[in-house]
Amino acid sequence: MGSEQLKGHLDPLVLAILEDGPAHGYAIIESLRERSGGVFDLPEGTIYPALHRLERSGTVTSRREVMSGRERRVYRLSARGHAALRERRTNWTQFSSAVSHVLGLSPA
Amino acid sequence: MTEIDRYISELTSRLKVGARTRTRILAEVSDHLDDAIAYRMRTGERLEQAASGALDAFGSPVALASQFNAQAGARAMRRAPFVAFAAGLAVFAGFVVAATTHARSATPTNATLATQISFFAAVLAFQIAVVAGVCAASRALSLWRTSAGRGADRQVVRQCTVISTGALGIAAAGWATTLGLEFNRFAGPHRATVVVGGVVMLCAAGIAIATMNRLAVNPFDNASDGSADPRPLFGLGERAIGFVRRHPLVSCTVVAGLSAPPAMSHAETTVAGALPYGVIQAATVVMGFILLGPALGLRRPNRARTSR
Questions:
Q1: Cβ-nearest to A43 among B28, B34, B59
Q2: Per residue in B132-151, pLDDT tens?
Q3: What is the pLDDT of residues B42-64, one digit of tens each?
Q4: What is the rounded CA–CA span in Å between residue A73 and residue B304?
Q5: I need a labelling partner for A11 at 20 to 30 A (CA). Which of B138, B145, B164, B180 fits?
Q6: How far is CA B34 from CA B15, B22, B41, B54, in A?
Q7: What ipTM score was computed for the predicted complex, to two decimals?
Q8: Which residues of chain B have a CB within 8 Å of the CB of A11?
């Protein structure tokens, strides 16, 4: 699945990965690929505009620090990010359940 | 030069963002590619093979730069109308300072034709600056919450702001010319105030034009992220513009009719003498609407011209 299909969904996916703990860009994209079973195979560079956007919105923070023996920019979820993730989960549950009902994929 | 160096070099040349953001992006990309190459080499790939694979997986520098440019462009787009607004206030303040001085110290003789032309041209240009500035601000406000959005939206804001600041420059130059032509009519102590007013106007307009030139609105870069819905109140200006687009004749007639009396009241004491000023003002509104309307998004472009 490419970046076009993921349009609008990448932000909550990144927030969900950062919920498990701070990570740098490479680790986030690896985790996204791994957790989606290889379905979300985006161009790896796509993650950086998303991270910058999330940082500007205040949902993640970042700073350069040493991780795995090297200095890199590490991102972590902010309090606002936790709240945003909770809201996106609720919205997604409602949305996906409604789509499933309409498509006849689950009992009404 | 390695393949990685070439990639970084192309990304650098395509990024239209601030120096600090550029440094940060390049550092992150380099770190990422180092990690990716190290991982691939651990799986048995040779250095060249690993570098090539890492770059393929990372994606094109053109697409990446475009996403960052779109984000920076959206921020610049939000700032642009407010730069124009601040400059407009400064130009107007400079003019008021100089004009107030003029009213107190001028001798009651008729103004020369050159003075009338420069003054009237400045007034008309200032009106264009205000209308274009309001159009730019309306669009920027309606897109306030978007992180990047469509390049076409930013293009409209940039176009309106460029017209606004350009017209502001003409207004400042026109008023400065008026003051220069009338300079001998000011009493000695007031001349300094007139010079200060003129300099403030010209500097404000110059700074606004220079700032607009530097703002990277990046209208040709589109972002692939979703855009947020505008807050209802922020879309008011955009709805007013929508009304003007739907009813161009009514809107243009009303504005032309409303703007004529103030122009007449400032020009002459008799209605017959002031009438030409009112007619020129109304005609200028109509001409401005016809000529600048499509660029400001107030009027749909001519169908025959666009279909060609």
A1: B59
A2: 888 888 888 877 766 666 77
A3: 999 999 999 999 999 999 999 89
A4: 54
A5: B138
A6: 21, 18, 11, 9
A7: 0.87
A8: 225
